[in-house]
Design goal:
Layout lengths: L4 H10 L5 H11 L2 H5 L3 H8 L1 H8 L5 H11 L5 E5 L18 E6 L9 E5 L6 H15 L4 E4 L5 H11 L4 E4 L13 H10 L1 E4 L11 H11 L3 E4 L7 H11 L3 E4 L7 H11 L3 E2 L3 H12 L23 H6 L4 E2 H8 L3 H13 L3 E3 L4 E4 L4
Parallel strand pairs: 3-4, 3-7, 4-5, 5-6, 7-8, 8-9
Antiparallel strand pairs: 1-2, 2-6, 10-12, 11-12
Family: Belongs to the DprA/Smf family.
Protein name: DNA processing protein DprA
Organism: Tepidimonas thermarum
Length: 371
């Protein structure tokens, strides 16, 4: 995105009546948002009808305040606007039916394109065992480099985020508000920790309050960013079942943890299992089902790894293999490798001294190209 293009993208998505599907229709017809706004009303009306064409030709309500607020928000280097067509746009979302035209991200946007990601969702009022299951599954998988994606809600969502953080892993919160607002408010500290270890993302403009219709819609992003969805506990009619249904329609795997036949919080999971969801009792069951998509678990550090053990061939050095070719934050590299901090830092220093890894501004690491 060019430096000033974000204003046109923001204005497009802030126009009343322009959702993800309509935005893509306009982009397909006219190209970039600046070209859309340059069209006469008659041309716009042929694509979206006269009423929406008139709104596109007008300035959205509260536009000046939103633009100024967003400009100030973007001054923080951890704040990002990512539009369709941007190289940072999450690749998994591009395979979904209606990817958002614009994403607001706090934290490391690279976490949104993780090749190994699992959605963990469930009840806002789980049983103690349900919350512990969410935490344990998330912690076990995050320790192997799987990015845990959830919705920052109370209950299972929060437990899943906490489990990933406890493993020193990466987690993503998809929210139904503006990213500058935290709902529920008691998760403010949790949201900051998530942004530091991964990111918080929303398709809604800054300042958007927690409106009920937004949460079912954000569920499609939770499902779309991952290769599978785990439902831990859910009553019949739960929003988590919407996420599971969306995941199925997107061709993603759906997993469910069984529970007591007497518990209302288990009935949604049992219904999913009857409909074909994979019954899982351990994190290993998920690994087995997704091995073909994820590949083997991230390698753990050898017990006696030392500075001199660093190699220069990615086929032989697990850290170089995990680093790949793109600039990578230390936390994400650590999540992929599963090494503890002192061990990984020592190994990276050895790689730097050998001239095969360099540190970039912002604490990112990158492999040095060799002739």
């Amino acid at each position: 995105m060019a430096p000033d293009d974000w204003e046109d993208w923001l204005r497009l998505t802030a126009t009343d009546g322009v959702g993800a599907v309509t935005a893509r229709r306009l982009l397909a017809a006219f190209g970039l948002p600046a070209h859309i706004f340059a069209q006469p009303a008659s041309a716009l009306a042929e694509v979206v009808g006269p009423a929406l064409a008139a709104r596109l030709r007008a300035t959205p309500a509260g536009w000046d305040a939103l633009r100024q607020h967003t400009r100030q928000w973007l001054a923080d280097p951890q704040h990002h606007l990512i539009a369709l067509g941007d190289t940072r746009y999450p690749a998994p979302l591009l395979t979904t039916p209606d990817p958002p035209a614009l994403l607001h991200v706090v934290g490391d946007a690279a976490a949104l394109s993780a090749p190994r990601a699992l959605a963990v969702v469930g009840s806002r009022n789980p049983t103690p065992q349900g919350a512990e299951n969410a935490r344990a599954f998330a912690q076990a998988l995050a320790a192997e480099g799987v990015v845990i994606v959830s919705g920052l809600a109370a209950g299972i969502d929060a437990a899943a985020h906490e489990g990933a953080l406890a493993a020193g892993g990466v987690t993503v919160a998809v929210v139904g508000t503006g990213v500058d607002r935290v709902y529920p408010a008691r998760h403010r500290a949790l949201a900051h920790r998530i942004a530091a270890a991964g990111c918080v993302v929303s398709e809604y403009p800054l300042g958007t309050p927690p409106l009920a219709p937004h949460f079912p819609r954000r569920n499609r992003l939770i499902a779309g960013l991952t290769q599978g969805t785990l439902v831990v506990e859910a009553a019949l009619g739960s929003g988590s079942l919407i996420t599971a249904e969306l995941a199925t329609h997107m061709g993603r795997e759906v997993f469910a943890i069984p529970g007591s036949i007497h518990s209302p919080q288990s009935r949604g999971c049992h219904a999913l299992i009857r409909q074909g969801a994979k019954l899982v009792e351990t994190a290993e069951h998920i690994r087995e089902e997704l091995t073909g998509v994820w590949g083997p678990p991230a390698l753990t550090a050898p017990a006696a790894a030392a500075d001199g053990d660093a190699g220069t061939d990615p086929a032989e050095d697990p850290v170089l293999a995990a680093l790949g070719h793109d600039p990578t934050p230390f936390d994400l590299l650590q999540a992929r490798c599963g090494w503890d901090t002192p061990q990984l830092q020592a190994h990276l220093l050895a790689l730097e001294l050998k001239g095969v890894v360099q540190r970039l501004p912002g604490g990112r690491l990158q492999r040095v190209a060799r002739a």
